[in-house]
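TA notes. Do not distribute before section.
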Amino acid sequence: MNTGSDERSEVESAGKAADSQDEQGLGSKAPKFIKSRRALHLSWQVGVFVVGLAVVVAGIIMLPLPGPGWVVIFCGMAIWATEFVWAQLVLRWTKRKVTEAAQRALDPKVRRRNIILTSIGLVIIGVLLGIYVWKFGIVMPWKINE
C-alpha cells in the first residue's frame, strides 16, 4: 500500500471534501412542518435531547457492564446530531479521528510491530503459565474425586 504518496495529505483532502459537503447540512433535520412552528420545534428539540441523553446514559452504564458501551454512546451522539450543530461537529470530529486511526493501523510497519508485540506477550504468558504448572501442578478449585 506504500506507493510513495503522502497518506496524511490524502486523508486531509478526503476530510476537507467531506467537511465541505457537511457544511451545507449543519442544523436541524426536523420536518418542515415542525420547523415552521416555534413551540413545536422547541418541543421537538427537547424530545430529541431527552432521547439522545437516555441513549448516551445507557451507553455510559454499559461501559463497565457487558454491552457495546461506546457504540451506544456514538448512537446517542448521532441522535443529538439530527438536531444540534454542536453534536454534528463532535460527530464529524470523531469520524475524522476514527478514519485517521484506521489509516495508521493499516500501515505495514505498525501492523508488523503489533504482531511482534502480541507474539512476545503470548510467549511470556505461556512461559509463566508453564512455570506455574511445573511448580504447583494443575489443582482444580473444586473436588472432582468426591
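Switch to the second chain here.
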Amino acid sequence: MRKEDCILLFRQWMKSLLPPNNRCMVKKNKSYSAILSAATLVAIIGLGSCKDKYAHIGQTEVLIETSEGDIRVRLYDDTPLHRDNFIRYAREGAFDGVVFNRIVPEMAIQAGGHDTVSVPAEIVYPKHFHKQGALAAAREPDSINPERRSNALQWYIVTGKKHTSAELAELKAVLYEAKVAALFDRLQREHAEEIASLKATDHAAHQALLNQLQVEAEEAIAANPPRPFNEVQKQAYAKIGGAPHLDGEYTVFGEVVEGMPIALRIGRTPVDAKEHPRKIITIKRVTVKE
C-alpha cells in the first residue's frame, strides 16, 4: 500500500471515532484538528505496517481468478526469464479460460496453455524451494530435457503436505537412489546399440558393460549428491508443508501471497487415474497488477 493511501485511511479512521453529530464540527474544532494532525504525523513516522510486506519477494503481483475463488501471487525478481514470460502470456490472455488440467493430491495443482515453446531453467536453489504456495514451471523429464528447460505455458502451485526432519532424511536417501537409477538408464540409452549387440553375442561382456555403467552412475552421483535440506526448508516443510522431492529439479519463480485456501480446495478435487480432475475448474482471468 502506498504511503499516501495509509495516511488517508488513518485520517478517515480518526474521523470515524467522532460521534455522528460532531463530525461536521471537525473543521471548527481546533483541538481535534491539532490532535488529528499530530496523530497523522505519528502515522507517517510509523508507517512500517503500511510497507509492502512482500517487496522482498518481488515487485510483480498477479491475480489468478478461478471458478473456485481468487489466488494472488508474487513473481520473483531473480528468475527474470520466467517472470517476464509469465507476464507476457498473462497480458496476452493465454491463461484466460483454461482449466486446471492436472491435480496431484498433496502435491500440486497444474494449469496453463499448450505450446512447444520453452524457457531456459532458472533453478535458484535452495533459496527457492517447493514449499506450500510455491509457483513453479512444469517441464519435460530429464530423459528428453537434460537442460531442464521449462514449458513456457504450463505452471503449477504447490499444495503439498507436511514432512518431519526424519521424513526429509529418508527422502534424501530415496532421491539419491533415484538419481543413480535415472543416470544408469540414460547411460544405457546412450550405449543401446552396443548393449544389444553384446546381449546377442557375448553374455559375459554384456553383463560387464552393464556393471561398468552402473558404477559410472554411482560415482557420478556420489560426486554431486542431492543437496541436504537446510534449516529454512526443514522448518517450512514441518510447519506448512510442500513437495520437497521436486526441489532443485524445477524452476520456482513465485509464490502465493493471498488465496492459498482456494488453491488447497482445488487440490482436494477428486481425480481420475491420470490425475485429471473429475470436476472442471476454470481460470477465468489472469491479471498482472500494475
